């Protein structure tokens, strides 16, 4: 009998880490204020996460990080999103912290967000910009990518909010600050979009899993016609569908995270793997958000109810780092270039051609 | 919900990938040599005993059957990658499908030593071909309502009744029949059922074709008129038929054949988009993404089963999503085509076959309506 350990390797996050975070976010959920229409950074929660080393989970230990990998980081993002925790974990650590390390720039641990300004120095929809001490900018300067760590007092911020009611500001940089940024390798510029898209996928899946829990609790408690509505077959099928779509999105996201972790993002199949996650997550979001609001009835549409603290971020985040349509088009391009004889190779390895340079899609994050 | 609906994912390691590539290379040679023409839904519609025997010679049948019974003594995960490779290339695998997927494992679990010796070596060589007799004219989703009677006689049982939708019965050597061996007790409907190994050439067996809407003959009605089954051809315990049938459902429902039945059509559509014969459309990427995610999910379920974990709910999730998706691929490609617009012969053939086979995808092996109920139970709603 073949040894199973030679055939497949489970990719699960550190159970101790998951235990600590589950407790922390359960406590956060139990003690937080009632939901609001606009959502601001929770600095107390951020501090608690900072004390646990979670705000720089994937940073190198030599520069003050916790040295964690993407599997643990994705678990953290999912659990935080399930608790609708208003904290910039993806921006500060997985994206901003990573860019600073890639550029060899110091990281003082002060709150960072991240963006890609356009050639005129303007970046739209920069989440948490107003709350950051510095903004890490990735700038495509002719044929080079540059990273600049710009203090907040050197940018102009126009405050805006996204569909989730979170800060999602317009930031205008001084072009000098961007032009003085540190040149980084091409692959850094190309990976940024993929890392952002996968981080958003992990967040959306975590939130969708919580939505399934909320829906299940409701359909067990809510009685109509003398019985819990979850006893009705029509409702059971609706809930089965949202749970199944969520599970598919989870499988796609975990597979991409596992590939990223195993190869430290060097696997040429990452574009496809992230695209699969982003596509499955995005389409699942349509089914889950619609189905959950249907199952919850009118109560689920109110400000006081938890549901919108999940469904609004789900929809806000699925459109970041590439729209669903963009990603489906990217996958279409990969699939058609793979053609009949290599489509299955593309699916199993992420590679459309034996040795292809695969560029990420147009970025509009 | 305390537990996840689907087990956590696992990464395929090089030992499995090597096997995958070995099978893939063989199949590419077979296609190039014209040994078979790739098609859709081949695990139901394409019988080729020579091809099946060739797989047996190469050690790709009887993979989970121990070597002492002529099998390969390998794992479900190894079988999984072989199965995937056979399906995506649209190989003719129907002749051994049922035996390989459920008859072999059931015999291993419930069969007597004599039964194992009698059937497993032939199954592993691809020489003994099995069908499965579950549904009846009045028993579809409600399987416990089967009426085929097993009456005790000296030295065995006499089976009387009619089985329907028996794939390949006209080509097969034997099938497993689920029959009522004790009168129905309405309070305990799942009791009193037994499984029998029926020689399809025995006296009293009549096989009539059920022709599918495209004119093809895959299904049959198998009429059993007092067929004598000796005691040594009872499978497992008398009266335990229901639990024996149920115990293999996770394997039956979570496999790649619930995802990949139309893969050849999807691949042809990808090629047609690249060649400009179909319009470039993001729907292709969407379907490819779902197939990829289901590949991971199905592998995760196989890994859990390999570790003897319960995966009935997860298998139902794979089957609902997978069979819906493989049917949606057929409909999707159809929506891209225009009447009067000359497609190539290959795409046309695959598309028409896929559309005609599609209704069966979400029916066979438990309808999606039944399976959503299974998922709801897994979620604690029932």
TrEMBL record, chain A:
<dbReference type="InterPro" id="IPR009100">
    <property type="entry name" value="AcylCoA_DH/oxidase_NM_dom_sf"/>
</dbReference>
<keyword id="KW-0285">Flavoprotein</keyword>
<dbReference type="InterPro" id="IPR037069">
    <property type="entry name" value="AcylCoA_DH/ox_N_sf"/>
</dbReference>
<dbReference type="Pfam" id="PF00441">
    <property type="entry name" value="Acyl-CoA_dh_1"/>
</dbReference>
<feature type="domain" description="Acyl-CoA dehydrogenase/oxidase C-terminal">
    <location>
        <begin position="198"/>
        <end position="318"/>
    </location>
</feature>
<keyword id="KW-0274">FAD</keyword>
<dbReference type="InterPro" id="IPR036250">
    <property type="entry name" value="AcylCo_DH-like_C"/>
</dbReference>
<protein>
    <submittedName>
        <fullName>Acyl-CoA dehydrogenase</fullName>
    </submittedName>
</protein>
<dbReference type="GO" id="GO:0050660">
    <property type="term" value="F:flavin adenine dinucleotide binding"/>
</dbReference>
<dbReference type="InterPro" id="IPR009075">
    <property type="entry name" value="AcylCo_DH/oxidase_C"/>
</dbReference>
<keyword id="KW-0560">Oxidoreductase</keyword>
<comment type="similarity">
    <text>Belongs to the acyl-CoA dehydrogenase family.</text>
</comment>
<dbReference type="GO" id="GO:0003995">
    <property type="term" value="F:acyl-CoA dehydrogenase activity"/>
</dbReference>
UniProtKB/TrEMBL annotation, chain B:
<keyword id="KW-0274">FAD</keyword>
<keyword id="KW-0285">Flavoprotein</keyword>
<dbReference type="InterPro" id="IPR052161">
    <property type="entry name" value="Mycobact_Acyl-CoA_DH"/>
</dbReference>
<dbReference type="InterPro" id="IPR006089">
    <property type="entry name" value="Acyl-CoA_DH_CS"/>
</dbReference>
<protein>
    <submittedName>
        <fullName>Acyl-CoA dehydrogenase</fullName>
    </submittedName>
</protein>
<dbReference type="GO" id="GO:0050660">
    <property type="term" value="F:flavin adenine dinucleotide binding"/>
</dbReference>
<keyword id="KW-0560">Oxidoreductase</keyword>
<dbReference type="GO" id="GO:0005886">
    <property type="term" value="C:plasma membrane"/>
</dbReference>
<dbReference type="InterPro" id="IPR013786">
    <property type="entry name" value="AcylCoA_DH/ox_N"/>
</dbReference>
<dbReference type="InterPro" id="IPR009100">
    <property type="entry name" value="AcylCoA_DH/oxidase_NM_dom_sf"/>
</dbReference>
<feature type="domain" description="Acyl-CoA dehydrogenase/oxidase N-terminal">
    <location>
        <begin position="18"/>
        <end position="127"/>
    </location>
</feature>
<dbReference type="Pfam" id="PF02770">
    <property type="entry name" value="Acyl-CoA_dh_M"/>
</dbReference>
<dbReference type="InterPro" id="IPR037069">
    <property type="entry name" value="AcylCoA_DH/ox_N_sf"/>
</dbReference>
<dbReference type="Pfam" id="PF02771">
    <property type="entry name" value="Acyl-CoA_dh_N"/>
</dbReference>
<dbReference type="InterPro" id="IPR046373">
    <property type="entry name" value="Acyl-CoA_Oxase/DH_mid-dom_sf"/>
</dbReference>
<dbReference type="GO" id="GO:0003995">
    <property type="term" value="F:acyl-CoA dehydrogenase activity"/>
</dbReference>
<feature type="domain" description="Acyl-CoA oxidase/dehydrogenase middle">
    <location>
        <begin position="132"/>
        <end position="226"/>
    </location>
</feature>
<dbReference type="InterPro" id="IPR006091">
    <property type="entry name" value="Acyl-CoA_Oxase/DH_mid-dom"/>
</dbReference>
